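stage 2 :: seqdesign
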């Protein structure tokens, strides 16, 4: 009987896990948008006026599109466009740089682009060992455990703050990174690195909404549409607590960086209400599900949304009227790095105008690099996915900061509760239990017959 009991309990636990991942809860209210104290301004897939274009100041050694062959700028590195920097000073020293970046987050091994790492190797004689990671938390775990032997990493804002606090990354010698002068002052000294001693911004962007114009039933204006019953079973939601709670908190009119337990609990309650409408909790799968038209609407990162729209004309985007997260990914050097000067050389190379332009064009993310901005044509400058307007950025966006350990733990606890909430159908668990009991009896009868056969 103990074995039978264990089988039943195991099956029940599996069901609970399954329900947390794909099941839903009944929605108690469809009108929580009334709590949002926000402007009803909507940014959609249209150009914006010239007056809203970001005013990127340019350093004296900037170049314009008249100075370069724009037809070949992506396919061949033009050494005449490089800054006056001695990239040969570490040659013949048998140096290998271990670089860890997000997946598909640099122009390497791409047919239409020169390979950034190969060009760096040819220029410097330094070998690049290039690895990727999937989440900030994965990278953090590697550095924290000592398992990541990296010279350069490119985490996101709030994780940079955490790494600074825990001594996992080190201060940079900016005399070895003169191309830092290209970084727009708007991205210098942000909350995650207030003195700007540890990081050099690589890309930035906002979280927006991507949707299929043929599958949604009315105009998409903001996060409220992810709680709209009209989109039932066609909604995808981020499968991580920081992003999911960030959206829910913004939807409710709260700060994405709140540490107030009551506000976090209200956000959790709102996410539980939404769960009844959610088709799946996913991350990178959003690209395939929305692009493949098996889902209709989802939050996603602006650069990837631009790529998705370029590939599928049925897709459109919305910049949420309630506000959103503005994220910055930046290059840093771990404290345990073995080749700090070479790593700083690599960061400087990433900020050569042509190199930074190639990466930006490949990724479709926004750029903090004023030299790259100077090469943009008007179509890009007025595209709110690539260059969101300053008024929206100033009034409606927040950068994630590192929250206290207590808040992170409590948020994770609330998220776990959301994920294991019982499924949409109240009959699923009882039915599963009946099936489990029937299966147990069947196995008992079968064993009994088998024993009789063995006896006779």
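stage 2 :: out
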């Amino acid at each position: 009987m103990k074995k039978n009991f264990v089988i039943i309990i195991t099956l029940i636990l599996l069901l609970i896990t399954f329900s947390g991942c794909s099941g839903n809860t009944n929605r108690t209210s469809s009108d929580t948008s009334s709590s949002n104290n926000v402007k009803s301004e909507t940014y959609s897939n249209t150009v914006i006026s010239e007056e809203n274009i970001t005013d990127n100041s340019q350093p004296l050694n900037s170049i314009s599109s008249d100075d370069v062959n724009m037809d070949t700028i992506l396919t061949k590195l033009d050494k005449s466009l490089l800054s006056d920097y001695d990239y040969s000073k570490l040659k013949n020293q048998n140096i290998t740089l271990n670089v860890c970046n997000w997946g598909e987050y640099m122009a390497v091994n791409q047919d239409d682009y020169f390979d950034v790492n190969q060009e760096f190797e040819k220029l410097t004689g330094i070998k690049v060992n290039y690895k990727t990671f999937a989440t900030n938390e994965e990278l953090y775990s590697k550095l924290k455990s000592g398992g990541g032997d990296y010279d350069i990493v490119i985490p996101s804002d709030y994780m940079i703050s955490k790494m600074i606090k825990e001594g996992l990354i080190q201060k940079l010698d900016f005399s070895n990174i003169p191309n830092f002068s290209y970084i727009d002052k708007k991205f210098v000294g942000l909350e995650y690195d207030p003195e700007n001693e540890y990081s050099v911004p690589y890309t930035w962007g906002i979280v927006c909404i991507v949707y299929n114009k043929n599958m949604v039933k009315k105009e998409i204006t903001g996060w409220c549409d992810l709680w709209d019953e009209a989109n039932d079973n066609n909604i995808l939601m981020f499968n991580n607590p920081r992003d999911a709670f960030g959206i829910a908190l913004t939807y409710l009119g709260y700060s994405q960086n709140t540490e107030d337990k009551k506000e976090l609990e209200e956000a959790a309650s709102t996410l539980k209400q939404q769960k009844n409408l959610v088709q799946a909790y996913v991350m990178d799968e959003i690209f395939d599900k929305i692009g493949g038209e098996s889902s209709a609407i989802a939050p996603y990162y602006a650069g990837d949304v631009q790529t998705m729209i370029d590939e599928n004309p049925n897709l459109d985007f919305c910049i949420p009227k309630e506000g959103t997260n503005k994220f910055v990914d930046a290059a840093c050097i771990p404290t345990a790095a073995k080749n700090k000067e070479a790593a700083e050389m690599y960061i400087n190379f990433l900020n050569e105008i042509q190199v930074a332009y190639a990466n930006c064009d490949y990724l479709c993310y926004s750029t903090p690099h004023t030299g790259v901005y100077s090469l943009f044509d008007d179509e890009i400058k007025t595209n709110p996915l690539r260059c969101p307007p300053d008024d929206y950025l100033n009034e409606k966006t927040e950068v994630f900061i590192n929250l206290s350990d207590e808040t992170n733990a409590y948020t994770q606890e609330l998220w776990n509760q959301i994920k294991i909430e019982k499924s949409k159908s109240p009959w699923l668990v009882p039915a599963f239990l009946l099936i489990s009991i029937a299966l147990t009896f069947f196995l008992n009868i079968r064993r009994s017959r088998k024993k009789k056969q063995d006896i006779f």
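stage 3 :: structure notes
- The longest strand covers residues 200-212.
- The domain at 72-199+332-388 is CATH 3.40.190.10 (D-Maltodextrin-Binding Protein; domain 2).
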